[in-house]
Design brief:
There is one protein chain. It is built from 16 helices and 45 strands. Strands 1, 3, 5, 7, 8, 9 and 11 form a seven-stranded mixed beta sheet that branches. Strands 2, 4, 6, 10 and 12 form a five-stranded antiparallel beta sheet that branches. Strand 18 and strand 19 form a beta hairpin. Helix 6 packs across helix 9. The protein is globular and about 95 Å long.
């Protein structure tokens, strides 16, 4: 059919740009079509753009601008308002259509052209005058025909009347190249569009029946798909896309999903609509089914009734032969078959927790077809999700990590070989926003389909169906094209680039490339009422095995190698002089054994979530090359350092090497579309050298701790001017305890003195824009601020601490301990609500302070140690090291008695005032809480909290009989023992079969 139109267009001496749908025979009465928008079926459902009408009444800008060939029908508005709508005082609104035309310039374009507007609905009595302007020439206006009556029309669902308006365009109005057609409504009311078409015949198209996607798909892309496999279960109860297994930190008996609610594996007959159940557990949970290549068996993740953790199981398509593949008290989820017969899946065997929530982490693992040889193939400290095998044999998956950048913006698509080598970004890692998940390849296409879950992601991965083309580069915005009309689809499947299937809560839907939807199956009413959803639809069919990627991992080795060809070859590196970079600082981002909230807790105050180990330095050659040997299966990042020790460029992600792997990159954040041909000879030269292991940095700890390592330097050089009694510049640098951190750390953090990223959705900084070289603190130190002269050794400690993330606590055991009010599940855990001393604060303030400190004046004071108020931050006004130095007390105390007398006149003349004593007693009660009930990581002895102890026992770090209330621990040593237990060693594989040792 396209060939027929092409011949017609050639005879007409014009080549046109079509819109996003292909013309059908029913369009033929229109003659030669230059462009069309929409489908002539008396519906507006394909149009989804919503102009901001009220804002447009104050601007001359067009309400809509549509470019043919670039925009799709969804980008057109279903409704067009006129001068009698919205009480807009006669304001008219213009829609613009831009299109291209090419024709033989030796001959005049003399044939008349007709612009036909098909309306699905219009105002029953106030017909608008339709004004058409084409390249500055105005057509004869026409009134919209009167509709059949009624004043309500649902553009998303309703079928209206079929009423065209045919407008002849002025002679010779089309020009060579870009043309602009404008539609303006006046002197009437709204219309709902059905279609728009520009052609050479004044004959409107015939009305098409409502689109039947099932019929269309079955005749084409679904012709060999007779059945659909899907799971039925209740959705997760947690608001995060990843929190759907395991248990919550504070109570291992509370899960983020409905445990024991029941689940089914069903198969739908596409034509009959009949459903058969192949497996069910009315008190268990079933998820993540995937069909084998032969279409005869299914692998899935299953938590049987009475169990607490998911493992992998396999079952035949007829419901027979159920067998367990993996076992153990860990969660194994989201399995995918690989071409060589192994299984890639996500597992909590990685023994770590997400660093900004209170649930465990799952990372990529691999095992044999019978569950043998389980081993890690990812070193991520956060989550990996939804792996799937690509046609080239690589694994496509979602990787979430936030190394020195926002924790809610970077969860994008990556690839790796099935053996864990060659981890690389696939799409989106540089651009913040959107959870890209449930990605799968499209047969006979280089594109993939995925769910782009909005923001930080939605429960069960619900999001926009999105087509991703990686050939434009992993960060090109045009590489992702939204298919769905709303963010309410999950786990999409593509039959082609134009035909899709997805779950939509309690039904399965077919979706076409324009976003049109049609329900294929809906749960019975009793299951809908009970709160069940459908999940993970997969067509039941044979599928071709992907390419087999040979394993290159040598499991007998403990290290791998990484080559950098030219560190000056990269994004934003063009102005860095060759030869100026001396070395690479190697940092390791460290996993966390447990976490409690969406915040940093004691690790930082608005900065890093993660502890970073200073592994050492690697020399950079004059030509910008480096070749290193790194421990396998650990997460590393690099900082390019110049000859003065200043950080030039920082890596805001991590990489790892597998045992025996030799990996290479072109340079420092090089464009991912850059071809490697020009680096082949330099790479050979780099690899001909012996790799270098990181050289430890002398004179500094490998994991910093602010109270232990930085505070003594401040005490020596800074505290004399910045203390409780003398806060020059309003800065207090004493190491006294606030409600969570010390005053010194809080003051430095709140004044942005570190040069860190502050958890912002930003990366790929210009050289020297982040780290110690950009730190205000380091600048003051180098300038000998206040005549403070630090030794070279002290400067070195501060500099490397800044470049390692400027953390506060040097142990994850600090989280959830020693705090007066701390965050659990992003809610304040109030520790002082029953303290008799604290209850008296409110009475004192009512009598002595509230007449001035009112809410209306934004002067309200905290009425408890856990009370947050905007102006008087509880973190700064309560001192639990020296309660009498609390600003809460010194502010209203007279100067004669050693106070600040901030209230103009003294509220308390002396410290003997009974009300002063009541306030002091409340703060002293908080001090006793820290000393006797929930101590801090920097104290000796230190007693770990219950959740940390539970997990360390589970990981085998603490003895099973460890009594946390009686036996103190060294938190730094226990964390280190935990990290080292995760390090890869060939000895851990001894006794397992089929491992190359």
């Amino acid at each position: 059919m396209q060939l027929i139109y092409l011949i017609r267009a050639m005879l007409f001496f014009i080549t046109v740009v079509f819109a996003t749908t292909v013309l059908s025979d029913e369009w033929s009465p229109c003659g030669n079509v230059l462009f069309h928008i929409g489908r002539p079926d008396a519906q507006s459902v394909e149009f989804r753009f919503a102009p901001k009408w009220q804002e447009l009444t104050n601007t001359p800008s067009p309400a809509l601008h549509f470019t043919v060939g670039k925009n799709r029908p969804r980008d057109w508005s279903p409704i067009h308002l006129s001068t009698r709508d919205m009480k807009n005082a006669g304001h008219s609104f213009t829609f613009v259509i831009e299109f291209e035309a090419q024709f033989d310039t030796d001959r005049k374009y003399e044939k008349p052209l007709y612009f036909i507007i098909g309306a699905a609905f219009a105002h029953p009595s106030e017909q608008s005058q339709i004004m058409i302007d084409i390249n500055g020439k105005t057509a004869e206006p026409k009134r919209q025909p009167k509709g059949p009556g009624g004043d309500k029309f649902n553009a998303a669902n309703d079928v209206g009347y079929f009423e065209p308006t045919i407008i002849e365009l002025p002679q010779n109005s089309i020009v060579q190249g870009t043309n602009k057609l404008q539609i303006t409504l006046r002197d009437g009311s709204w219309i709902f569009y059905d279609y728009l078409v520009l052609c050479d015949q004044p004959n409107p198209p015939q009305q098409l029946p409502p689109l039947d996607l099932k019929k269309e798909f079955r005749a084409g892309d679904m012709k060999d798909v007779n059945e659909i496999l899907f799971a039925v279960r209740k959705p997760g109860t947690d608001e995060h896309w990843y929190a759907n297994f395991g248990y919550y930190a504070a109570d291992s008996n509370i899960q983020p999903f409905p445990l024991g609610a029941g689940a089914w594996l069903n198969i739908l007959n596409v034509d009959s609509g009949q459903v058969r159940t192949i497996f069910e557990d009315k008190a268990g949970t079933i998820r993540d089914p995937q069909l084998h290549y032969d279409g005869k068996k299914i692998i899935f993740s299953y938590l049987p009734a009475g169990k607490r953790h998911f493992n992998l199981y396999e079952i035949n398509i007829d419901g027979t032969g159920l067998r367990q593949i993996t076992d153990g008290d860990w969660d194994d989820i989201e399995p995918t078959y690989t071409a060589n017969g192994d299984i890639i899946f996500c597992s909590s065997r990685t023994k770590r927790w997400v660093q900004c929530w209170l649930t465990p982490v799952a990372t990529l693992h691999r095992c044999g077809a019978n569950g043998e040889n389980i081993r890690e193939v990812s070193a991520n400290v956060e989550h990996d999700n939804t792996p799937w095998t690509l046609p080239n044999g690589q694994i496509l998956y979602t990787r979430w990590e936030y190394v020195d950048r926002s924790q809610v913006h970077y969860h994008h698509l990556w690839t790796m070989n099935p053996d864990g080598t060659r981890h690389n970004t696939f799409y989106g890692n540089l651009t913040p926003g959107i959870v890209m998940i449930d990605a799968k390849p499209i047969e006979n296409s280089h594109k993939i389909i995925a769910s782009f879950s909005p923001g930080h992601g939605r429960t069960e991965h619900y999001g926009w169906l999105t087509l991703v083309d990686p050939t434009l580069g992993p960060d090109h915005p045009d590489g992702a094209v939204r298919i769905g009309l709303h963010a309410d689809h999950a786990d999409p499947w593509a039959f082609s680039e134009k035909s899709f299937l997805a779950a939509r809560r309690q039904r399965l839907e077919l979706i076409n490339a324009d976003g049109r939807e049609q329900t294929l199956y809906e749960l019975p009413d009793e299951l809908k009422t009970a709160g069940f959803f459908v999940h993970e639809p997969r067509p039941v069919k044979n599928r071709q095995r992907e390419m087999v990627v040979s394993d290159t991992v040598d499991w007998s080795q403990t290290h791998g190698r990484l080559a950098v060809v030219n560190i000056y070859e990269g994004r934003r590196m063009r102005n860095v002089p060759v030869g100026s970079i001396k070395e690479l600082l190697v940092l390791e981002t460290l996993p966390e054994p447990i976490h409690y909230s969406g915040g940093m807790d004691q690790i930082s105050d608005g900065g890093t979530f993660t502890l970073e180990r200073v592994v050492g330095t690697i020399p950079v050659q004059p030509d910008g090359s480096a070749f290193m040997e790194l421990p396998a299966l650990r997460s590393f990042l690099f900082v390019a350092m110049d000859h003065e020790g200043k950080p030039v460029k920082r890596m805001h992600s991590f990489t790892n090497v597998m045992p025996g792997e030799t990996s290479a990159c072109i340079g420092c954040h090089e464009p991912r579309t850059q071809a490697p041909m020009s680096i082949e000879l330099p790479l050979v030269k780099v690899l001909s050298r012996a790799p270098v292991r990181p050289k430890p940095v002398e004179g500094i700890p490998d994991v910093f701790d602010f109270p232990r390592d930085i505070q003594p330097i401040l005490d020596k050089h800074c505290v004399s001017c910045h203390n409780n009694d003398r806060m020059d510049g309003g800065v207090n640098l004493v190491g006294d305890w606030g409600v969570r951190h010390t005053f010194s750390y809080l003051n430095l953090s709140h004044r942005n003195m570190f040069g860190d990223n502050r958890n912002k959705p930003e990366s790929n900084f210009e050289p020297y824009k982040i780290g110690s070289g950009a730190s205000k603190l380091m600048k003051l130190i180098n300038e000998n601020h206040g005549e403070a002269k630090l030794s070279d050794a002290e400067k070195k400690i501060v500099r490397y601490w800044l470049d390692a993330g400027a953390n506060y606590a040097g142990t994850y055991a600090a989280n959830g301990t020693g705090q007066i009010g701390w965050s659990y599940r992003n809610k304040m855990v109030v520790t002082d609500e029953n303290w008799a001393e604290v209850k008296k604060i409110g009475n004192v303030l009512k009598r002595r302070c509230n007449s001035c400190h009112t809410t209306e004046k934004n002067m309200r004071l905290p009425h408890a140690l856990t009370h947050n108020v905007p102006r008087y931050d509880r973190q700064f006004i309560f001192n639990f090291t020296d309660p009498a130095k609390s600003r809460f007390l010194t502010g209203p105390l007279s100067q004669l008695s050693g106070g600040k007398q901030r209230c103009g006149q003294a509220v308390f003349e002396n410290t003997e005032d009974p009300d002063y004593q009541l306030l002091l007693a409340a703060i002293e009660r908080g001090r006793r809480y820290i000393l006797e009930e929930s101590n801090r990581f920097s104290m000796k002895p230190f007693y770990a909290n219950e959740a940390y102890t539970r997990e360390m026992i589970r990981y085998g770090i603490l003895r099973p009989d460890h009594d946390r209330t009686k036996t103190p621990i060294d938190p730094y040593a226990i964390d280190r023992k935990y990290w080292e237990s995760l390090w890869f060693s060939p000895q851990k594989l001894i006794g397992k079969t089929n491992v190359n040792l």
